[in-house]
Design a protein that fits this description.
- The chain is α+β, with helices and mostly antiparallel strands.
- Among the domains are: 109 residues, PAS domain (Beta-Lactamase), CATH 3.30.450; 238 residues, 4-Layer Sandwich (Phosphatase 2c, domain 1), CATH 3.60.40.
- Helix content is 43%, strand content 22%.
- Strands 6, 7, 8, 9, 10, 11 and 12 form a seven-stranded antiparallel β-sheet that branches. Strands 2-1-5-4-3 form a five-stranded antiparallel β-sheet, with helices on both faces.
- Helix 8 packs across helix 9.
- The radius of gyration is 45 Å and the shape is flat.
Amino acid sequence: MCDSYERFAVCCMSIRFKLLVLLLALSLLPLGILRTLRGGALEQLGVEMGNLTREALLENAKNQLLTTVEDQARLLDQGARLLTLALASQADRAAQFIENGGRPDATDSVSLTVSEAVHELTSWQVTALEDGRMQVYPEGYPLPPQFDPRHAKWYRDALRSGKLVWTIPSVEPSTHQVTITVSMPLRDASGRTVGVTAIMAPFSRLLADSFRAQGLTPEIKAFLVSTDASEGTSQGLPLIAQYEATSAEVSPENTKFAWCCPSGQLRLSADDPQLGRAMLEDLRSRKSNYRQAFYEGRDALWAYAPTDQWGAALVIVAPVDHMMQTANLARQRLEERVAQQADTSLRFVLAAMAIIATMALWVAGRVTRPIRDLALATERIAQGDLETKVEPHGKDELASLGHAFNNMVPRLRDHARLIEAIALAEELQKNLLPESLPQFAGLEIAAQTKFCEEVGGDFYDVIKDAHGYPGCLSVLLGDVSGHGLDAALLMATARAFLRLRANQNGTPAEVVCEVNRFLTLDTDGTGRFMTLFYMEFDRAAGMISWVRAGHDPAMLFDPEQSTFTELIGPGIPLGVVRDYAFLQQDRCWLLPGQVLLIGSDGLWEARNSFGEMFGKDRTKDVIKSNAELSSQSILDALLASQSEFVGTDTSEDDITLIVIKATQVKNAKNFCWLYP
């Protein structure tokens, strides 16, 4: 009896049994939930989703209308600018004919031709003189009988204003098209007005094709209105032209549209007077916008945008119900779809309950087998068998877990190889640093780098016979941003550039500038950079030259005066600005006994457990108290003092130091012993 109970308890605690209970519960709970919530909840969901869809489509329609009217306004302004340029060119050519004693007649009609792009916008051009002579392009253009341009409004407006003027759209008698005229006076060499030249452009050519491409229908109306302060009132905006259907077809695609001028003084106004005032305020502020208000008894969207010419604006009015036809249809279909989904879900739950109850045991067994295999394989890994693998089946999460398990051991091996590669990089970096420092008469040099990680970004170099000149010594110290393998690789690249360039002709400034140009090609966009202190000792000239590229200044200690001098100079880090012009600093040779320290900020920025920095004052104290010792002893004293200061804390940055001490040299008469 007891054994039977224990077997039952073990069975109940197994994953297979738990999965069976879980699957059965999941099959029954949805049925109860759906029966409880099905009623009005799904219907309400459909209504809400339909409303949200309608609101989203309405907002999209508003933005679409605004974009359309803004594009058309820009297109109209562009055409106006082209016509203005064409008229100015036409006036210049006509003035040249007049100045040369010629006459603008049909024998030289090329004087009125315009560019092909502008020609597509124009219907005809005319140059008329005050004595009645005129020239028309193209030749043979049909003009009304007894046509005298001097009586035309555009002619009188140009003479009265004395400058380029626009004549608002009007119906041209010969073609019955709504035409815009741009005209300007002609003057002879003395400045006297002798006539007017003009270009006529059908309004339909400026905007009709473009409006047609936007898919306007008879339900959607477009207007050109005036925004002049003398005309615009709260009763509406004066109507200049209207884009309307000229033929009624069964299908909107076949409906023809054209720009027409209103008969009489008509105004465009909404049913709400507030809209007219708000539109006028926006347009006078050169602001495009959209609003919603009733037009001719229908709720409509109003989109408008100002133009740069004529004090006019474009307005598009679209009924909301017309714009929302698609939204209403989508809402209806959505509600139907929600109802269908509710019925489908119920049937699916009933079927799923039967299927899950039948397959629960089989599924539970299939699911638990990979888990059991993974448990056994993990135990073998714990015993040291790194060749252990499992056999994943299927493409589910458990199969992915099996593949991840099989990839674990190779990744461990890859990790070991990475550690080996880092060790190799560390060895490479150490080999890149000078094994020994060259001897140089008059100077005693010591240098050392202390890395905070296996691979760091600090480096130094001492190059004898720099630029191929005996007696010239280059000393440099660089500090690459960051630590680790990336910093070491950038350090190796920079060191190679510096060694190569330092052995070619050039000044220290030229060396640093050229190395910076090459280094920027590798660091651009990576955020990496390098500070550098580059110094050259020219024994023949008795001079010292240096370039400071974002690095801390070197410290020069004079034991005779017991003072410190910083070798400063302008400059930014290398690898930041490709064509930066680095400047060179110069001074006389060191006096015997003087000590020069070039170091990285890892020394004076080292912190102890209290957060206190080692600082430059401590650095100077160590140099001052050990100035009589050799350069190597001074360097050792600095590192020992830093280690004692930080205690057991790990340094957060590399430390690189170069200590140079001046000694007495023979034949010193050629050296400049004065301070700069």
